[in-house]
Amino acid sequence: MADSFTHSEVLVKNDRTYSFIINQSSTQALSLKMTELVRTEFGPEQREINVSAEDLPDFVDKLINAFVACRAATKRATTVRPTAVKPPATVPGKAYAVEAIRQVHQQAYAPWTPADDQRLRELVGGKKSVSSIANLLQRNTGAISSRIKKLDLK
Q1: 1 has pLDDT over 50
Q2: Average pLDDT for residues 24-31, to the nearest whole number?
Q3: Which of 3, 27, 60, 87 has a beta carbon 3.0–4.6 Å from 100's, enabling a disulfide?
Q4: Are 60 and 22 in contact (CB under 8 A)?
Q5: Is residue 64 within 8 Å of 100, Cβ to Cβ?
Q6: DSSP letter, residue 78
Q7: Looking at the DSSP assignment, which residues form a beta bridge with residue 32?
Q8: What pLDDT was estimated at residue 93?
Q9: What is the rounded CA–CA span in Å between residue 1 and residue 99?
Q10: CA separation (Å) from 78 to 74, 85, 102, 103?
């Protein structure tokens, strides 16, 4: 029997915790579970979305499209209505489209150069937040956090 695969991401913001869990069973069926936990004065409230293997490819394409449009809208200084971004077809087995992500983070998945590493060291030394460093280096926050850890900068 083949090993199963699980990947999870957690985001905690104020009174909310979001979790994203991708499971791949030994039968190779993928599923995605998204959870929002909100702490209220009456106790915790939890909401879940479960996406089946059958719906996952279409769901991921639509989700990337929505995220790219949302990111573009938040970066725009004008009130122009965002246009939909059609993500390119994904490679089978790949849960993301690099080209779609690069519309927001131009350096996403690009190799790190010695100059990039030096700039990262300077920004971390200057006490910049991971989010502001990500914007300056045109990479996502996960890439910045991973590189900071790899270079043992914090």
Answers
A1: no
A2: 76
A3: 87
A4: no
A5: yes
A6: S
A7: 22, 51
A8: 54
A9: 35
A10: 10, 18, 22, 18
Q: What residue has token string 């790899």?
A: 150
Distance CA 148, CA 151 (A): 5
Residues 66 and 53: their CA atoms lie apart, in Å, by: 20
Phi and psi torsions of 5, nearest 5°: -125, 135
What are the pLDDT digits (tens) for 49-104?
988 888 888 888 888 888 888 877 777 644 444 454 444 445 555 556 677 777 77
End-to-end CA distance of the chain: give it in Å, rounded: 40
Burial class (CB in 10 A: 0-12, 13-18, 19+), 90: middle
Q: Which residue has the tokens 């996403």?
A: 108
Residue 32: how many other CB atoms lie within 10 Å: 20
126 by DSSP, 3-state: which?
coil
Determine phi and psi for 78, rounding to 5 degrees: -90, 175
Burial of 143 (0-12, 13-18, 19+ CB in 10 A): buried
